[in-house]
């Protein structure tokens, strides 16, 4: 299964295009822009703010995305602005739903309603969207469940649990991970000492950045042998397929 989630650069580009409300009502207006504009009106209602004020916040987000390297970094820059943060979370939720609706997962294998895959700490009590629905009716509630890096760091228990999980893992697999310093910092408090196997998908990553990632992971994971670090240029599903024996062992 390949969901075709946008990369960092693609997501930033879609936010820039989607929140270009100056095109609204013109021949150059995009479908994404029209759908996001409807959601901006709803967002204004939820915040009890004039829609013009929320649109200005979306424009600030657009401008920041032009210079940002990732949506995480952009939202961290504006973590003091609730409206910009809300616009960013809305856009992320919107484009994830869009990717699911266009994925190669066919109708036949789908489980009716939600796709019941949950992480160990998820109880299924929070707002959910049915699989493959581009515009879930509760999109705004789902968006509020996203945490910016600043919000995640503030949750000390969550950060502790993440770092403990990494520190005790015998095998660490990175699929679609951005490797921005802020994200990496959430995983490692200190260098590891137990020499885990590390498998990384570098799909879409330049050779220079892949070499930097390898150097970073050798240091942070405390790897003593080259064979403990495996880099694959394949997509997520290709990595899972090609390394199935390792992952199932």
Topology diagram in text:
Blueprint: H1 8-18, H2 31-47, H3 51-67, H4 71-77, H5 82-101, H6 139-144, H7 149-154, H8 156-168, E1 171-174, H9 181-187, E2 197-201, H10 207-220, E3 229-232, H11 236-242, H12 244-248
Parallel strand pairs: 1-2, 2-3
Helix pairs in contact: 1-3, 1-5, 2-3, 2-5, 3-5
> What characteristic shape results from the CA principal axes?
elongated
Q: Indicate the low-confidence ranges by residue numbers.
A: none
Largest sheet, in brief, is: 3 strands, parallel
Structural class: mainly alpha
Number of domains: 2
Beta-strand content bin: 5-15%
Total beta strand runs: 3
What does this structure look like?
The protein has two domains: 8-120 and 130-152, no CATH class; 156-248, no CATH class. It is elongated and about 60 Å long. The longest helix has 20 residues, at 82-101. Strands 1-2-3 form a three-stranded parallel beta sheet, with helices on one face. The model has no long low-confidence stretch (mean pLDDT 88). It contains twelve helices and three strands. Helix 1 (8-18) runs antiparallel to helix 3 (51-67) and helix 2 crosses helix 5 (82-101). Helices cover 52% and strands 5% of the residues. By secondary structure, the chain is mainly alpha-helical.
């Amino acid at each position: 299964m390949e969901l075709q989630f946008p990369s960092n650069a693609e997501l930033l580009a879609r936010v820039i295009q989607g929140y270009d409300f100056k095109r609204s009502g013109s021949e150059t207006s995009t479908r994404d822009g029209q759908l996001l504009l409807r959601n901006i009106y709803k967002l204004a209602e939820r915040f009890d703010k004039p829609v013009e004020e929320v649109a200005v916040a979306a424009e600030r987000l657009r401008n920041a995305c032009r210079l940002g390297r990732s949506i995480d970094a952009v939202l961290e820059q504006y973590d003091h602005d609730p409206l910009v943060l809300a616009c960013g979370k809305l856009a992320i939720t919107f484009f994830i739903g869009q990717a699911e609706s266009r994925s190669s997962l066919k109708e036949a294998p789908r489980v009716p309603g939600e796709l019941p895959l949950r992480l160990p700490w998820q109880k299924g009590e929070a707002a959910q969207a049915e699989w493959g629905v581009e515009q879930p009716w509760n999109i705004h509630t789902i968006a509020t469940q996203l945490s910016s890096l600043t919000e995640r760091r503030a949750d000390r228990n969550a950060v502790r649990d993440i770092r403990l999980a990494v520190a005790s893992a015998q095998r660490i697999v990175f699929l679609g991970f951005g490797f921005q310093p802020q994200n990496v910092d959430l995983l490692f408090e200190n260098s590891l000492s137990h020499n885990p196997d590390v498998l990384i998908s570098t799909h879409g990553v330049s050779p220079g950045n892949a070499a930097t990632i390898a150097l970073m992971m050798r240091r942070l994971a405390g790897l003593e042998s080259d064979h403990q670090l495996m880099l694959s240029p394949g997509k997520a599903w290709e990595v899972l397929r090609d390394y199935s024996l390792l992952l199932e062992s």
